[in-house]
Write a structure and sequence with these properties.
The protein has 362 residues and is α+β, with helices and mostly antiparallel strands. The chain has two domains: 260 residues, no CATH class; 34 residues, no CATH class. The chain has six helices and 15 strands. Strands 4, 8, 9, 10, 11, 12, 13, 14 and 15 form a nine-stranded mixed beta sheet that branches. The model has no long low-confidence stretch (mean pLDDT 86). It binds zinc ion (2 copies). The site of one zinc ion has 8 residues, from loops.
Length: 362
């Protein structure tokens, strides 16, 4: 068994080189030597999902990785001899250095980091600065130049050609005039009111769509609402997998298998198909009765997306902030200082009392 080695020693001094965000080069942190990353040859492969279900992914697309597993959040992070992390980058729980080897489907593509760690921290600090209710000392703690972890987070993307036959109903709205009795100035009058009525007609047909890169998170170590909040991703910029883009960063192994994540992809696609059907039915209202979808040309890719993560424990609680390594979008815990909230409410009450007093006085 051959373990993947994702280290790239500096040709000048031998120190491990690191990918430099925003560039297409490796840089030696020791002597400053730079090496361009060669242009990716060939396109990004798409794999057959049925092959994955039958465990028949081509051997060339598989790899064995040594990973450390966090017992607290379940993250499996690639073991890196050059990064001596003692705590989990996702939840700040101590990691027992119990490493194992696992077989993974290799990534087919990645979005390299654009933001440097400094830029990511600036984005986080701007975001924290807008949280007026956050405890000041937590903000200070977060801002104190704390190290962030650059992590490639695993995702699955799915392509599919779908064709859906449906039956349903098209609703046409018309208005009927109804006399109603109302009281005006103490006297009862009869007025005409327009009431909307829907008449339903049977409808059926077929819609087709080509889905490209339906994106599903392949791990559970970051809460989904965080990763959803830092979307969207510029997936058109995906480049063929090149381990040099991972040098000096950590890659998380996927923990949600490709077949399982497809269930979520199908829900996303179904919602799009329903919109297509409603548009196809037309009219003023639509009802979808039955729909039957045939899925062809179903393929997937395993892709890695860059996220800067700051996780720490503060007064016994875990705080986590994530920054999109491409766009700088931030999401994280929204901590509240109970003292600040108390004084804010107190100030509002005093202001209301003052206003009431002035109104009585005038
Ligand atoms: Zn060097
Ligand atoms: Zn963890």
């Amino acid at each position: 068994m051959k373990l993947e080695d994702h280290r790239f020693p500096c040709p000048a001094c031998g120190a491990p080189m690191r990918f430099r965000p925003g560039t297409t080069a490796l840089r030696c942190p020791h002597c400053g030597h730079e090496e361009p990353i060669p242009d990716a040859r060939g396109g990004i492969p798409e794999l057959d999902l049925r092959g994955a279900a039958e465990k028949a992914v081509p051997a060339v697309e598989m790899e064995d990785l040594r990973v450390v597993r966090c017992e607290s959040c379940g993250a499996e992070v690639e073991f890196d001899a050059d990064i001596h992390a003692k705590v989990c980058p996702f939840c700040a729980a101590p990691i027992v250095t119990d490493t194992g080897v696992r077989r993974y489907i290799k990534p087919q593509a990645q979005l390299p980091f654009l933001l440097t760690e400094d830029e990511a921290r600036q984005a986080m600090n701007r975001w924290l600065g807008r949280l007026w209710f956050a405890p000041s000392n937590l903000r200070a703690y977060a801002r104190a130049g704390r190290a962030m972890d650059g992590i490639y987070v695993p995702y699955w993307t799915y392509d599919a050609e779908t064709r859906t036959r449906y039956s349903g109903q098209r609703g046409k709205v018309h208005y009927e005039s109804h006399p109603v009795r109302v009281r005006v100035n103490g006297r009862t009058q009869t007025q005409t009111q327009q009431v909307a009525r829907v008449r339903w007609y049977p409808a059926q047909g077929a819609v087709a769509r080509n889905f490209d890169d339906v994106l599903v998170l392949g791990s559970n170590s970051l809460p989904k609402r965080y990763t959803d909040a830092i979307a969207p991703w510029d997936l058109s910029a995906l480049s063929a997998y090149e381990p040099r883009f991972l040098a000096g960063f950590r890659a998380e192994g996927y923990s949600v298998p490709v077949e399982q994540a497809y269930g979520e992809a199908k829900e996303i696609m179904d919602e799009v198909i329903r919109q297509d059907i409603r548009r196809d039915i037309g009219g003023d209202r639509q009802r979808i009765g039955a729909m039957e979808t045939s899925v062809g040309a179903l393929t997937f890719k395993h892709v890695l997306l860059p996220v800067w993560v700051a996780a720490y424990r503060y007064h016994g609680k875990s705080y986590r902030f994530v920054v999109n390594g491409r766009t700088g979008a931030v999401e994280g815990e929204r901590p509240y200082s109970s003292m600040k909230v108390f004084f804010f409410v107190l100030a509002m009450v005093l202001a209301a009392v003052a206003v009431a007093y002035l109104q009585v006085a005038s």
